[in-house]
Amino acid sequence: MTRRHSIEEFGPERVSKNDCAADDLILLAEVVDAGGFGAASLRTGVSKSRLSRRIATLEEQLGVTLLLRNSRNFEVTEIGRQLYQHGRRVRAETYAATTLAKDNQGEPYGTLRVACPTALVSEYVGRIASEFALANPRVRICLNTTMGTAASQASHADLVLVPSVKGLPDSDMIVQRLAVFRYVLVATPAVAEAAGRPVHPNALEGVDAIGWGGTEESVRWHLEGPGQEHVEVETRVRFSSDNLMVICEAALAGLGVARLPEALCRPYIEKGRLCVVTPGWAPPSGSIRIFVGKAVEQLLSPCLGKSIAEHNGKLI
């Protein structure tokens, strides 16, 4: 039977500076945050084999198992989670010390990891990120796109942009509303014609719809109309995706009525490829929220934070 270890066992009398290097704890934190050696290698630039050797050496020095891994599973042990928390603190303090030394230069400095859905990157964020990188050569930007919401990227990013009416679940990140955007119901002219060119939402009952995520066969849309009137209609989900670009493509293909940000489908409306269904009635507006990691807020230079805020203003 394996004895369970407590972090208190690893005090100065057992773990000397030579036994447990701070950078090994940082690497442990990176591996756990990334969910595996391969992803951690991409994030850190350290080879997968070297990461594995460093963690194995750390386990040997401490006499404990920190990670349980095989070709299919990756699991952190109880003592591994305790040391992971220490590694995160060591990493934060290391970054803080580096930032403190650079702050007096008054120039943005550091690595900024941004997670953002593909639709936002193509419409807004890609251009702003490129402009920011050109204006701040000492900032390294890692912009990762997600195929749906950015919730799954929260633990791997410093900034997470989420287009949603809800917050980011299970996150200790600091949230600010960046911009508000309008939703519209759209379809191809042929689909709208087949539905009788509906004017009131009640005419949409049972119509083929393109859903957002999920596997439900039907979905209820909440719509707002003139005089603050509210209506809910139930539609049949013929196609669904957690990617706004895919939903837009499905609407263009004639698969049904879609609920999309007006800014995303405006070019297709102007070209006549899509039309607004039930004019005057629309889903509630959504928000683009920016989630900022506490480490970024506390550790990156104030100048960098100010520059980010100035560039974010272009989204509104």
Automatic annotation (TrEMBL):
It comes from Eoetvoesiella caeni. GO terms for biological process: DNA-templated transcription. Belongs to the LysR transcriptional regulatory family. It comes from the Bacteria. This is DNA-binding transcriptional LysR family regulator. Residues 23-77 form the HTH lysR-type domain. PANTHER family: HTH-TYPE TRANSCRIPTIONAL REGULATOR (PTHR30537), TRANSCRIPTIONAL REGULATOR, LYSR FAMILY (PTHR30537:SF31). Pfam families: HTH_1, LysR_substrate. The lineage of its organism: Bacteria, Pseudomonadati, Pseudomonadota, Betaproteobacteria, Burkholderiales. PROSITE patterns: HTH_LYSR. Keywords: DNA-binding, Transcription, Transcription regulation.
